[in-house]
Amino acid sequence: MAEDVVIYWRPGCPFCMALQAVVRDRADRATWRNIWEDPEAAEFVRSVNNGDETVPTVVIDGVAHTNPSPLKVRKALAE
């Protein structure tokens, strides 16, 4: 379900901008967490990416995906 989608991002990230462009009309169905403004979000991203702050990291139904296909995220937001 869409409420189970959390997108961890940061300003200026080209991959985050590409993801946002693809999910634009469904973006409000996800929870967006800026890792530069949210220390807990940054810690989570590091915990699932071997200490790196790799974004976008997207959690879909409890499973973390590092830099997933924007179409995969779009599909998850449609469900």
Structural features, described:
The chain has a single domain, classed as Glutaredoxin (3-Layer(aba) Sandwich), CATH 3.40.30. Helix 1 links the parallel strand 1 and strand 2. Strands 2-1-3-4 form a four-stranded mixed beta sheet, with helices on both faces. Helices cover 37% and strands 22% of the residues. The protein is globular. It is of the alpha+beta class and 79 residues long.
Overview in brief:
This protein has helices spanning 14-23, 39-48, 70-78, and strands at residues 5-9, 31-34, 57-60, 63-66.
Topology readout:
Elements (H helix, E strand, L loop, with lengths): L4 E5 L4 H10 L7 E4 L4 H10 L8 E4 L2 E4 L3 H9 L1
Parallel strand pairs: 1-2
Antiparallel strand pairs: 1-3, 3-4
Helix pairs in contact: 1-3
Helix content: 25-40%
What is the overall silhouette?
Answer: globular
What number of domains?
1
| CATH H-level homologous superfamily name | Glutaredoxin
CATH topology: Glutaredoxin
Distance between the termini: 5 Å
Strand content: 15-25%
Rg measurement, Å: 11 Å
Name of the top-level CATH class: Alpha Beta
Poorly predicted runs are none
Structure class: alpha+beta
Main sheet specs: 4 strands, mixed
Please tell me the CATH architecture by its name: 3-Layer(aba) Sandwich
Q: Could you tell me the number of beta strands?
A: 4
Number of helices: 3
Global mean pLDDT: 94
Order of helices and strands: EHEHEEH
